[in-house]
Task: inverse folding
């Protein structure tokens, strides 16, 4: 059987480029797609699909491929809410003037945060996630899920200089901040229901007010605000993107840590340093499996005529499992002008979160026996039972 027949057969067996995200083992399917149909139109899903590494890079580099449909800068359910206002200002969701100048400031700011120091700090902040008496109870799936969605966000906030931990009392509003970040992140999903959208709007408002009410901080954020002012960037865009960093970190880093627990639980890489396991997981079982681009004008893409308004599903995970394993940067962190500026930090935070969980008795083998993937069209996030 030729490769395209194999890919088609897998599709008819119930896997497609969207359901692959949460399929138990989508990688043979992705590899076949990348080899046999690296760029094609999926008529049933109504999407173009880029699966080959060359095609994925070409779409992400193409000037006519935008991160939002030009007529719809904010998803309709969020429009007119605090969540929509915040979303509309994120560099992740803008091209051109709403993207490049601020991205140019975010990249060096994040690069200046030492990943090793952040991992160490995560070990200290871990006690904010749960009171010490929780140490005496078994590490249930529920608790593990909570840790995955809290510790990376709290540590990033702390490294940016946001006061989530009160040095004197050892307490702070860390858990509350993480809770609102989670709610806002969840509201962005196309699968979010009305309740999730309204919780996200409330969370966005809470986060905006919290940030606005903080005393002027020193550190990375003050540097960012000063540089943004010199560059004539709207302070509201800066504020939105500070929250945006926490939101970007939230689900993807939780997924990276969760997939690392799965890898450990299945007995993979037992003697490797945790950092190496995380780096392998980012390549082999990536947390962000795809992203989308929207055609701004009629154009040509990978040898095909495409129309304004067309959507391209960019299969980062397919590019990843069909590229040489020693590529320096994992595809799951994107490519080109919107590439993730948090990749190194995220890997350190994921490793630190797994380390904190293991230190508290989490058993990866037991976790790997009872989990499902959270419903998602782009992220592979285990939910432990
Ligand atoms: C500390 C944690 C993280 C931070 C602060 C962060 C921050 C960001 C920011 C600000 C962007 C927008 C860049 C732009 O549009 O130019 C971005 C994009 C992206 N991030 Fe991250 N991120 C983090 C963790 C992760 C993780 C763990 C993953 C996946 C494993 C990930 C995958 C991506 C991808 C794929 C994009 C690009 C999306 C696209 O091009 O459509 N990020 N990230």
Result:
């Amino acid at each position: 059987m030729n490769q395209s027949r194999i890919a088609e057969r897998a599709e008819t067996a119930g896997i497609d480029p969207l359901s692959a995200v949460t399929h138990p083992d989508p990688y043979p399917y992705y590899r076949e797609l990348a080899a046999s149909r690296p760029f094609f139109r999926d008529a049933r899903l109504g999407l173009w699909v880029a699966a080959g590494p060359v095609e994925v890079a070409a779409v992400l580099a193409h000037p006519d491929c935008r991160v939002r449909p030009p007529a719809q800068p904010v998803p309709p359910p969020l429009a007119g809410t605090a969540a929509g206002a915040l979303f509309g200002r994120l560099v992740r969701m803008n091209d051109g003037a709403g993207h490049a100048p601020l991205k140019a400031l975010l990249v060096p700011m994040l690069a200046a945060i030492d990943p090793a120091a952040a991992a160490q700090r995560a070990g200290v902040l871990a006690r904010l996630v749960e009171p010490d008496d929780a140490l005496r109870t078994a590490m249930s799936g529920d608790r593990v899920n909570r840790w995955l969605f809290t510790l990376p966000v709290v540590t990033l906030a702390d490294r940016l200089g946001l006061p989530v931990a009160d040095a004197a009392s050892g307490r702070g509003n860390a858990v509350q901040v993480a809770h609102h970040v989670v709610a806002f992140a969840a509201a962005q999903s196309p699968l979010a229901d009305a309740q999730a959208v309204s919780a996200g709007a409330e969370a966005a408002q809470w986060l905006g007010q919290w940030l606005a009410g903080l005393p002027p901080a020193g550190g990375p954020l003050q540097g960012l605000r000063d540089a943004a002012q010199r560059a004539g960037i709207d302070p509201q865009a800066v504020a939105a993107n500070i929250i945006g960093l926490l939101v970007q970190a939230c689900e993807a880093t939780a997924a990276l840590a969760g997939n690392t627990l799965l890898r450990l639980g299945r007995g993979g890489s037992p003697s490797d340093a945790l950092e190496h396991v995380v780096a392998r997981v980012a390549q082999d079982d990536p947390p962000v499996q795809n992203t989308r681009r929207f055609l701004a004008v009629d154009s040509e893409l990978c040898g095909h005529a495409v129309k304004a308004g067309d959507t391209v599903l960019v299969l980062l995970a397919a590019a990843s499992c069909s590229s040489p394993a020693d590529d320096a940067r994992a595809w799951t962190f994107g490519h080109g002008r919107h590439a993730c500026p948090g990749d190194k930090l995220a890997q350190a935070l994921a490793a630190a979160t797994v380390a904190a969980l293991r230190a508290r008795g989490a058993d990866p083998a037991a976790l790997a026996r009872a989990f499902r993937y959270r419903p998602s069209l782009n992220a592979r996030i285990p939910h432990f039972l």
Observations:
- Residues 67, 91-92, 103, 106, 110, 156, 245, 248-249, 252-253, 256, 282, 287-288, 291, 332-334, 338, 340-342, 345-346, 349 surround protoporphyrin IX containing FE (CB under 6 Å).
- The domain at 76-286+339-384 is CATH 1.10.630.10 (Cytochrome p450).
